[in-house]
Amino acid sequence: MLGTMVASRAVPAQSDAATRTAWIDMARGMAEVSVVTLHIMQAMSNAGLTPPGLFDWWTPVGDMIRMPLMMFIAGLFVEHSLRKGPRDYFKGKLQRVVWPYLIWAHVYQIYWHFNPPPGKPVDMTDVFLTVVHPLSHLWFLQVLFIYYVVIYFLLKRGLWPALAVGLIGALLTPWMLGNNEIQRIPYLFLFFVIGIGFNRILKTRGFPFGPVVGAVLIALAIALPVLITDYFGYSKYLPQALPASIIGVGACLAIARACVHVPVVNRLLALFGKFSLEIYCAHLLFSSQMRRGLIRVFDIHDFWTLFLLSTVAGLAGPIILTLVLRRLGLDVLFEWPKHLFHREKPAQAQSF
Asked: What would the pLDDT profile of 173-185 be if each residue is shown by its tens digit?
């Protein structure tokens, strides 16, 4: 798979590169699993199907780690993309981020217009304004593209000024602007920039901590969000949540590196990571339809049965859809339309 080895000295570097790709894919896969399970649990909680206390316990832990981890992973690949030059850099982001954002933001708005969530009607104005104000989870792709544009100019000044901008924004903006949708933009940008810096550490020094530190981070990542929420109240995207988010991201990286050595789990997480964009965009349709089908057709109301089968549908459905579309040459839901006319070998580890 790695090709013929020319010299024995090349073996460690190649092996390390393969391992690094694996654990990064697994970390991305963990983030996608967290997103899918959150949305399923939210829907089931709204329907009164979640066991008392379960959603309340998981929410602060997931909320302080999930999106910071996703932005951190996106930041890992920024400088790799920048080396392609400005034209290819922005072209790639338009094709890989903006295109699926435009497609799927409208898909959800139209879907919800005809199948509105309880108490949340979606009118045609919402459909037309979805590019500016998406009501779905697709806001992540919208904000991510903004980061790609901003970081292109900030990195011309260096990494430290970019980190300073992210930190100042994360500390000050939440107190100046009370809107949660605004608070998350500077907060998550900090983790996007930290991802860029962490990638530099990986290249120069390797992974910075071992299993003992990783175990400590995992324990703190579970305890801190709960303690912060108990003391401060709802703290998502607020400055007091920063320690929990930073530690949580480190804990997830430690788990991902450990999972490299766990059979089956490593393959599943890597698979979810490689199809992260597709899962992120399409999982709601598959998981919600699975849940509704189980309730309406089979009269199943058991939480764990609904939760597990909906999770499988939310993770596997988008992958199957993508593979079928690629097979047919119609993968325009996730890919720039060039694939409709010119077949290309799909990249093994695309990122967004």
From this structure: 767 666 677 889 9
N residues, the chain? 352
Measured CA to CA, the distance from residue 250 to residue 209 in angstroms comes to 9
d(CA 61, CA 245): 9
pLDDT tens profile 30-61: 999 999 999 998 888 877 887 777 666 667 78
Identify the residue whose tokens are 């989870």: 137
What count of other Cβ atoms lies within 10 Å of the Cβ of residue 138?
Answer: 23
Give the C-alpha separation, 230 to 167, whole Å.
24
Which one, of 99, 129, 124, 128, lies nearest residue 114 by Cα? 124
CB-count exposure of residue 202 (10 Å: 0-12, 13-18, 19+):
middle
* In contact, 65 and 245? CB cutoff 8 Å: yes
Cβ neighbours, 10 Å, residue 242: 20
